[in-house]
Design a protein that fits this description.
The complex is a heterodimer of chains A (457) and B (80).
Chain A: E1 13-16, E2 22-24, H1 25-36, E3 44-49, H2 53-64, E4 68-73, H3 78-88, E5 92-96, E6 105-109, E7 112-116, E8 128-133, E9 143-147, H4 148-161, E10 169-172, H5 179-190, E11 194-197, H6 205-211, E12 216-219, H7 221-229, E13 242-245, H8 252-264, E14 268-275, E15 280-284, E16 299-300, E17 304-309, E18 315-316, E19 321-329, E20 335-337, E21 352-361, E22 367-372, E23 376-379, E24 382-385, H9 386-397, E25 401-405, E26 410-414, H10 419-431, E27 438-442
Parallel strand pairs in A: 1-11, 3-4, 3-5, 10-11, 10-12, 12-13, 13-14, 26-27
Antiparallel strand pairs in A: 1-2, 5-7, 6-7, 8-9, 9-20, 14-15, 15-16, 17-18, 17-19, 19-21, 21-22, 23-24, 25-26
Helix pairs in contact in A: 1-2, 4-5
Chain B: H1 3-15, H2 36-49, H3 56-61, H4 65-76
Helix pairs in contact in B: 1-2
The chains are: A alpha/beta (457), B mainly alpha (80).
């Protein structure tokens, strides 16, 4: 069974959510059998995710029964949802009761409902297991195609990396529709551990009560800004053993303060690196190196291999080098889908991922990310595709524009001064990027060179 | 600018709303954009505008427009 869920102790607690209710590994197995009665194998189902038990059971039941979920946030903006629905035409939906809105429900449990849409079966590649948007945020209908082995391999790599066992209680607060959120879930289920599944804000009292129970906390850089603002380093968190971070780069100051906190309090701080194209995790910095290798993503995770391809096209696996970072491993996904027909495609990556990140490797074999070849930003752990934001603005306002920025701020160049005030809230509505992280600059014209490359600075 | 004007301006800017919606119904569960990112940004703006440092437990209490006003009055001696 998926993640060997049927080989855990049946009475062991698998997850507790914000309602205070919990499920055991036995419950997960039983639910999978019930779920299977309502829909056939190899169906395409949209899973509208929230971090609670109903959503989790939809995921485990789908994967256990060879039903293929496309996982998106239950709060997905309506326009994007409709676009995805029209493109992929799912046969079923698994969604919170609150989103049913008159659709005919064929089964319900844990405040989630199964809806049959009437769409025809979707032909799909036999090993296709799961679809996730490349960026839950920028309204891109581009999906990452996972096979069954990808998810198992990632879960096992992460389990080995953190040496997870059944005694863990993991804080699972990153969204389920986000690759790293799913990775926390899958790796801990494989280990037979307990998930503290929560959709709470980090500024909710309930979160802080949960954190006292948790043995590990996984966050993105912004999570640690909040934790620091809340002065968590002064709190008594005796159960917390591991703090781990992914989803972009921490500032050097934040890194040092977390590493110091871990050292002083007998905890482990483990920074990680990953992409949704590789089923989340790819590299990690062992805790004992946190003070010495500040802001390094470390080394390949167990089961993976990193290399660098330099400007001359030479690939190296050791010694100092600089260039594009390449990853190999069984968690490298099959490829992308941009339309329904793509779901028939097989493996296009063959276990090798050119990450699009520029990296430097030091003499000790540790990698440092120093830049990015692909056009996207990572703000608050959200991946903001610049081409996609430009396309949204051009479609909505019929105007030329250009996006750039760094992982602090998205900068939009426009020629129409009237857009200065409206664009930040438009972008927030479409992408959920906080509008104060959007800067609009009005320019006379957007200058392009002969190759079409924008040269405004 | 009065204290109330200062506070209202912060709310309007952080949550992208008109001043007229700032009342007892402006609560984190009712406001779509009220997440941790917005709340922390609001806290930072309040700290700057009123020149104060808020305690961590108070930040957790700032779950509505009315709560924020009450808290600032009772604990930080800012009158509205």
């Amino acid at each position: 069974m998926f993640l060997e869920l049927d080989r855990k102790e049946r009475q062991r607690t698998a997850a507790i959510d914000d309602s205070g209710r919990s499920i055991t590994y036995g419950d997960i197995c039983d639910f999978s059998l019930v779920f299977a009665k309502f829909l056939p194998q190899r169906s395409l189902i949209f899973l509208l995710a929230e971090n609670r038990i109903g959503s989790l059971l939809g995921y485990t039941a789908a994967l256990s029964n060879r039903i293929v979920p496309l996982i998106i946030s239950a709060a997905t903006e309506e326009g994007l949802y409709n676009h995805l629905y029209e493109l992929y035409k799912p046969e079923y939906l698994w969604l919170p009761n609150s989103k049913v809105e008159g659709k005919e429900v064929i089964f319900s449990a844990w405040e989630y409902c199964l809806v049959k849409t009437g769409n025809k079966p979707t032909p799909m590649y036999d090993e296709l297991s799961l679809l996730l948007p490349t960026s839950g945020s920028t309204g891109s209908p581009k999906l990452v195609r996972h096979c069954y082995r990808n998810i198992e391999a990632n879960a096992d790599n992460v389990r080995r990396l953190f040496k997870l066992d059944g005694s863990e209680k993991a804080m699972a607060i990153l969204p389920m529709h986000y690759t790293m959120g799913l990775s926390v879930i899958a790796s801990h289920l494989l280990a037979g551990a307990t998930l503290l599944l929560s959709g709470r804000s980090l500024l909710d009292k309930g979160f802080w009560a949960l954190l006292k129970e948790a043995t590990s906390f996984t966050g993105v850089p912004y999570s640690f800004e909040i934790l620091t603002k809340m002065r968590f380093t002064r709190m008594d968190l005796p159960n917390l053993k591991v703090i781990t971070q992914g989803g972009g780069k921490l500032t050097e100051a934040m890194w040092r303060s977390l590493a110091q906190y871990a050292k002083d309090n007998g905890k482990q701080f483990i920074a990680t690196y990953g992409q949704s194209e590789c089923t989340a995790r790819m590299a990690y910095l062992p805790a004992e190196m946190a003070m010495d290798k500040v802001c390094s993503i470390g080394i390949a995770e167990p089961g993976g291999q990193l290399s660098i391809v330099d400007d001359n096209g030479n690939e190296t696996f050791e010694r100092e080098a600089q260039g594009e970072m390449v990853y190999r491993g069984e968690n490298v996904t099959l490829g992308y889908a941009t339309c329904r027909e793509d779901l028939l495609k097989g493996d296009e990556n063959h276990g090798v991922m050119h990450t699009g990140d520029l990296a430097r490797r030091d003499a000790d074999g540790c990698y440092f990310i120093i830049g990015r070849l692909k056009r996207f930003l990572k703000i608050y752990g959200l991946r903001i595709g610049l081409d996609e934001v430009e396309r949204m603005i051009k479609t909505e306002y019929k105007t030329d524009c250009y996006c750039k920025g760094d992982d602090e701020k998205l900068i939009v160049l426009v020629t129409d001064a009237k857009l200065q005030d409206v664009l930040p809230s438009f972008i927030e509505e479409k992408t959920h990027l906080f509008h104060q992280r959007v800067e609009v600059k009005v320019v006379k014209e957007i200058l392009r060179n002969e190759a079409g490359k924008v040269i405004n600075q | 600018m009065t204290n109330l004007e200062k506070l209202n301006q912060i709310f309007c800017e952080v949550y992208s709303v008109e001043e007229s919606v700032l009342n007892e119904n402006f609560v984190n569960t009712n406001v779509d954009t009220w997440d941790s990112i917005h709340q922390l940004s609001m806290v930072a703006a309040i700290e700057e505008a009123f020149d104060l440092m808020m305690d961590a437990e108070d930040i957790l209490e700032m779950t509505s427009y009315e709560n924020v006003k009450q808290l600032l009055t009772s604990k930080y001696e800012i009158s509205f």
